[in-house]
Amino acid sequence: MPVPIDIAKVARLARLALTSEEMERYGAQLGAILEHAASLQALDIEGVPPTAHPLPMLNALRPDEVEETLDREEVLGQAPDREGPYFRVPPFMEEA
Amino acid sequence: MGYEAVIGVETHVEVATRSKMFCGCPNGFGAEPNTHICPVCLGLPGALPVPNVRAIEATVSLGLALGAEIAPRSVFHRKNYFYADLPKNYQISQFDLPLCRGGHLDVETETGVRRVGLTRVHLEEDTGKSTHLGESGRIRAAEAVLLDFNRSGVPLMEVVSEPDLRSPEEARAYAAELRALIVALGISEARLEEGQMRFDANVSVRPEGSMALGTKVEIKNMNSLRSLQRALAFEVERQTPLLEAGREVEQETRHWDEAAGVTRAGRSKEESSDYRYFPEPDLVPVTLEAALLERLRSALPELPAARRARYRALGLEPDAARLISEGEGYGDLLDAAVAAGAEARAAALWLSGEVTAHLRRVGMSLASTPLTGAHLAELDALVAAGRLSATAAKEVLAGVLAGEGAPEEVAARRDLIQISDEGVLAAAVAEVLAAHPDELARLRAGEQRLVGFLVGKVMQTTGGKADPRRVSEAIRRAAQ
Amino acid sequence: MNGDPADLTIAAAAAAMCAGELSAAALLDAVRRRAAATEAQLHAYLTLDFEGAEQAAAAADAALARGEDLGPLAGIPVAVKDNMCTRGMETTCGSRILSGYHPPYDATAVARLRAAGAVLIGKTNMDEFAMGSSTENSAYGPTRNPWDPERVPGGSSGGSAAVVAAGSALGALGSDTGGSIRQPASLCGVVGFKPTYGLVSRYGLVAFASSLDQIGPFTRTVADAATLFEAVAGHDPSDATSYRGPVPEVRSTLEAGPAGLRVGVVAELAGEGNEPAVLAAFTRTLEALQGAGAEVRELSLPSMSYALDAYYLIAPAECSANLARFDGVRYGLRLPGDTVEEMMAASRRDGFGPEVTRRILLGTYALSAGYYEAFYGRAQKVRTRVIEDFARAYREVDVLVTPTSPTTAFRIGERTDDPLAMYLADVGTIPCNLGGGPGISVPVGLDGQGLPIGFQVLAPPLGEAVLLRAARAVEALAGFSARPAPATSGVG
Lengths: 96, 480, 492
Ligand SMILES: [Mg+2]
Ligand SMILES: [Zn+2]
Prior knowledge:
The complex is a heterotrimer. The two termini of chain A are about 40 Å apart. Chain A has helices at about 5-15, 20-35, 70-75, and strands at about 80-85, 85-90. In chain A, strand 1 and strand 2 form a beta hairpin. Chain A has a domain at about 5-40. A two-stranded antiparallel ribbon of chain A has the order 1-2. Chain A is mainly α. Chain B is built from 15 helices and 17 strands. Chain B has helices at about 55-65, 170-185, 225-245, 290-300, 305-315, 320-325, 330-340, 345-360, 375-385, 390-400, 405-415, 420-435, 435-445, 450-460, 470-480; strands at about 5-15, 70, 75, 75-80, 90-95, 100, 105-110, 110-125, 130-135, 140-150, 155-160, 195-205, 215-220, 255, 260-265, 280, 285. Chain B has 3 domains: about 5-290, no CATH class; about 300-415, no CATH class; about 420-480, Arc Repressor Mutant, subunit A (Orthogonal Bundle). Helix content of chain B is about 40%, strand content about 20%. Chain B is elongated and about 95 Å long. Chain C is of the alpha/beta class. Chain C has helices spanning about 10-20, 25-40, 50-65, 110-115, 160-165, 180-190, 220-230, 275-290, 305-320, 340-350, 355-365, 375-395, 420-425, 430-435, 465-480, and strands spanning about 45-50, 75-80, 120-125, 170-175, 190-195, 215-220, 260-265, 295-300, 400-405, 440-445, 450-460. Chains A and C meet through helix 1 and helix 2 of A and helix 9, helix 10, helix 11, helix 12 and helix 13 of C. Strand 2 of chain A pairs antiparallel with strand 10 of chain B. The structure holds magnesium ion (MG) and zinc ion (ZN). The site of zinc ion has 8 residues of chain B, from loops.
């Protein structure tokens, strides 16, 4: 059975302005994929630790040293909108 | 029926590293906008984070100082939320495996020492800064927002307390004590006015004596000890009448509006946050070896509470002990002065009085003056030996602070040394008495006010370099 | 010299340059002519930079004239998948959201190619953000298979596979998250090699799924794959997941042959799910290996049946966060909006294609409150099982083998309406990414329609030496030397 999904909430969390037609389509596709993924529930994984990373590595850290920074003009040159030395965006809807 | 507050505080502190948390950009306040940026802290496609070892060590040091349990294995997580000043739209933070867990901080309050439990200390990254253009920079009235990513990726330590605080005053005292500890450990200068230390708080109110917890409200955006206390006080006063009237407090996040002195509900509270934490796949776990922990433990400096206790044992008043312990560089200077032979209380008085006033006047830090502990000891000795009057000592200290040299040198150059030779003093007194036989006779007859007249004469003949106290004693002796 | 230099292997071209029979400029010219002849039809490149390439070739020629030993890649024209950052050269990841984006830095792998004297000629087409198995998900139109332009080249690194097959580059870099190097290599009849996770720095590789992504080479021979691998592999302090030990030494055993090699056939992946022609070629190769002294046996790895589902939760989950940065604030596409939230949502809605949108939604869902344990958490535990199964198998055999792809190249448009069917194309390649070990696809024959068939070899993490030795043996035994039909030339 396809898994029912609150696709509007998922789209909001993912910051995607989907039309209702798109939401319906994606919702159905996701339901089918998740139905397939339900096979995982059949596997006995009691007590199995999760793997976040294929190779066991530890402590990949860097010394506290200053390195070169980027050229501001090169970076701001890629910005969709800027004002002087700043990136410029429309106003925020919510407070921080 | 009385009500009491139940408060927990979340403190964010920027760690004073040279470089940022996950990249080599300089970590510093006040640079030109968007100059401390690189692919990593700007969230450019393809960039990868690498954690700063110094930030991790600083966090562990705080954990050790707080008696926390240091995680044998710690993991960074991604905390996912969209925000324009968060370049990757996720914050690298910690979730179920923070660097430090538990521990406590003892806080002195009016009702005695309160032991405040700590939930955790973890490490994360700061966001960029947004400036809201339009009506006096207010968010809702803004017409556009300007973004500066210099602060993006600065290491941010988060210290979460248990809900062990019972009043806004206690919360403030806790925050102040935590700040003192962080400064003492060299983790951060914790300058509140530069946003290096910021507070969020959870607060609920319940009938006194009740063990149940009320509905808690989260307050965000407090940037000073004062605003932390004010915001909590506002919130307690807002919640208490609701409960008294038998109404419910709504569980929500509110924002402190410093200018208006009120907390306000967020606009979109129905959209409860779902941060979708998961282990940051670009990073690998951090393990802290016993040897490293031992090195960090043995490198811990004397903590503020211990220092205050030591100064009180030296005879300092509680307020002075706190000031000297927490003022930047004060404690070290006092220790050096005492080591050089100064009397602790006298040296502390100089520090809290003249020195502090001077620093305030010139807007400098203690470290930037030439004053040493030896100077304070020398000054103390000059006053104790009667060679310097209290007034002259102030002048000498000002000279020392101005870089004119050691106290003795300054006093000599400014000709402020008092006559300390008993013979010279006695001769001056004898000379004046001989010149004023009538006044001496009247004094002997009981006219005490003539002491002042005669002391004045001696001061005149000595050019003000005699110690008036000793002159007056000598005149009284002669009159007997 | 005989023939078109564009058809040379890297080793042969390097030898010809060393011998003074070929200049880097002449080689570049041959590749440029080939690209001119094929690109209008194949659309394998998104960006071509012959100006920059000429400078690099001239530098190689000048160094050659001075008698410097430049190493095996000097003057060799190579292409790079468009998800690797190239300073000042457009990098789109096949997405509209990055149209016109010029990174201010080079990916580590790109920088190492440049340092090795390779001539970077352009950026290859790909499924948007490496999500797909056909290169049809590119916002800039699909790439076509050089063997049959009606068919897909595979994906997501379809452009890199196609340029090497077509001769419009002698080698190329791709990225492999669930088979994105090996599957297109199989469908295009070239060698595609995914090294052990962490051996090639991911710094500057635009992330799809961070714990699975790995850069690797496309070449015409196994030896050339080793050459490109050696140029780009090795620790990079800018990538915290980069392996800190030495890169496995692969040269000395490359020609050691199959005798004594213990080869395990993965029962779950070598059966009826494969097309008959694919299975026939696979079996033929196994028999040849056995005949040459390899010890072949069948092994069961039960978790393989669950790997696909685990992958399609883990990869989307990671991608949902990795792609959050594309928000119209600092770079890339921006649509208007009254608030920054609306601007972001509109930009992302228009900037991402359907497959990327689908995976972002899937991953967001799999991580969201209440579902994490059932989906993402569970998938991570299945991943542990996959790793355990591999470890158990590698106690008994040196390498594992499967068909790379259950089918040969399919027709353009054939699977675009059925995401699940498309996902199933990766069933044989995905377990390797979950396990972290290296994998390689070697062409071993053609099916009845003249479409290439790939043979996949897998080895334990850091088992590159035995992997390439086995792959080289397969290559030698199969004797595959077919090239795409010249039909590609001159068609526009
Ligand atoms: Mg935090
Ligand atoms: Zn940076």
